[in-house]
Amino acid sequence: MATAHSQTLLGFDYGRKRIGVAVGQQVTQSASPLATVRARDGKPDWPAITRLLEEWKPDALVVGIPYHMDGSEQDMTRAAQRFCRQLEGRYHLPVYQAEERLSSWVVEHDPAQHARSGQAIDPLSAQVILQDWLQQKEPRQ
Fold it and tell me: How far apart are CA 108 and CA 89, in angstroms?
């Protein structure tokens, strides 16, 4: 198993139609956009997620959990939490919930992100979620 300082993580920005995915490293505390996984009626394309996990072999997963600005839950809060439970049950990896507010807004309004205009918003949102989570966490043992 990887040490705490070299952990690879996949981050997810869950949506009912699209799920953004990013990859990050604990040692650098940085993340990069990776892919968009399609979902149909809120059901993720599990084979596509499995392929990403097989390719990147992450030590843990991070899922953005959206809340209203006042901190209250919304419909997507419960849907993202359900996605976390499904990831845990399918892949038996640690799944961390990252409170996320405005990750898509940050991507849409950040001038640096506009330089990557060919990049889809979903993986960029996942990158913001994972990057924030990595920078807020102390290295784990």
Answer: 33
Domain 4-136 has CATH 3.30.230.10: no
The structural domains of the chain, with segments of one domain joined by +, span 4-136
Smallest CA-to-CA distance from 80 within 8, 129, 23 is with 129
Neighbours of 137 (CB within 10 A): 15
Q: Give residue-wise pLDDT tens across range 70-109.
A: 878 888 999 999 999 999 999 999 999 998 865 555 555 5
d(CA 12, CA 35): 10
What is the pTM for the complete model shown?
Answer: 0.84
What DSSP string runs through 86-131? HHHHHH---EEEEEESSHHHHHHH-HHHHTTTTS-HHHHHHHHHHH
Q: What's the rounded Cα separation, in Å, for the pair 62 and 65? A: 9
pLDDT, one tens digit per residue, over 39-68 is 998 899 999 999 999 999 999 999 999 988
Which residues are CB-neighbours of 135 under 8 A, at least 6 positions away?
29
Rounded CA gap, 11 and 13, in Å? 7
Burial label, 16 (beta-carbon count in 10 A; 0-12, 13-18, 19+): middle
